[in-house]
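Protocol step 4 of 6: structure prediction from sequence.
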Amino acid sequence: MIKSLSINNIALIDHLDIDFKEGLTVLSGETGSGKSIIIDSLAFVLGDRADKTLIKYGADNAEVTALFEVSKDNPVVSKMEEYGYGRDTEILLNRKMSVAGKNEIRIQGKTATLAILKEICAELVDIFGQGQHLSLLNEKNQLSVLDAFCNFNGDDVLLKNELCAQLNAINKELKSLGGSDAERARTLDILKYQIDEITAAKLDVGEEENLSAMHLRIVNEEKIISALELSIGNLNGEQGAISKIAESCSALKSIFSLENSVMELQNRLQSARLEIEDVSAELCELIEQTEYNQVNVDRLESRLEEIKQIKRKYGGSVEECLKFLDNAKTLYDGLSNCAEHINKLNTEKKAVLEEMYRVNEKIFAERKQVAEKLSRQIMRELCDLGMRGTNFVVQFNDKPTFEEYSLSPFSNGFDEVQFLMSANVGEPLKPLSKVISGGEMSRFMLAVKNITALAEKIPTMVFDEIDTGISGTMAQMVANKLANVSHNRKDGYQCIVITHLPQIVAMADVNLFIKKYEQNNKTHTDVEVLETYEQRATEVSRLMGGVGAHAVVSAKELIDWSVEFKKNL
């Protein structure tokens, strides 16, 4: 059970410490006083979605701490030990959220993940709010509700899980081998096309780079020729370098006898003239070789586009395309020669499906038996809650043949269920969502909880406005059922209820009055424990809408009646 809850900077709450006890704890107060904020805070520390709008205006962060006490045999103790938090029967949870979105979680003072927090808290508290109405109306969730009542054979459940794992492994391997015969044939056709396309391209590493260089030279041929001609003209023209050097050499030769030192210089000029003549000759050869050819350009561009298309389809580079080709050939060879292995896998798959079908037949029988029992119990509870003409049935789909099941096997069996209800005598059975009102839905959910109260191991049950759409005599019946839910449980268990009904407030073992007040131009929420008989009578009187001493007398009579009722539980 939850022993205490500490809330900081949540909505209208600055700081609030609440102590909880066993039995039925009822939270009441004016509409908008902040009752649901307390439940939202509890849900937050239990791992509910962290919504930054919960943070009090002007605060940097919000924090909630909850202390629980459980029995030694509660499954949560083993779960705590499994995650390294010890085997204490007192469990301390803390969660903090900042405006910046930072989320901190601690269990027993040690950091924890949100997934671990949710897993542990699933064994601690069951919060029933308005959203569960909608959940139960969804037919997809009704099978899980039925299964919660079933007592499946543990060996069958383990076997079913093992078989599901085997089936998934076989299907995965079959998929790697192309799936069905038709799928495999399509895959082989695709692979052959890909192999042929890449092979026909005759890719060669380095070819694209060379072709790109050639293409660049061809498209810039005019610029190249212009540069070559200018260079040749400067070297070999009438006023070119070669002619000028020749003149210089003759001039120097004429003064050999007069200046011996110029002979060496003339020799050096003569060598330079020869080197320049050689450069000029090579430049002339380049001009002769440089000839623009549109056919060559088209051929180069076509080949480059072909390589580009192959790269786009099979990899970002020629190396990746060749790697893809090797893998495709390997896969093609494997798929072309795997008929024997596929036959073996299909035989194993059929055997697994047959065993799954057998186990699911047993699960189907258990569900059918429990569904009949559950229907009778729910109708009995609803009768106690004033819905005497109600008829309730769990409808199953037709049991599939093995061949039908093999086409679409499900891990949770081959059952589809639908909750059908008729709220009035003589009316036909219809889906729950089509016939049930808000008040009837609240009573229906309370009936379900009342049936499972003794079997459930979750120590704390929270009902957020279970009384929606209920008033008058029905309100007293709901109060009686809530008392039954909270008192027909072992020591250390508790129910926490938010309500506006005086009958439920009068039935409480602990009354918490939620009030809202203004201080320093700000609105705040606080909790007052109604400890005295007079305080409780005043609150019950307020909810009854009475005025004066007679209203208080009526409220006290209701409280006294509730006390006697609980003594007989």
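Step 5 (inspection) to follow. The chain is about 55% helix and 15% strand.
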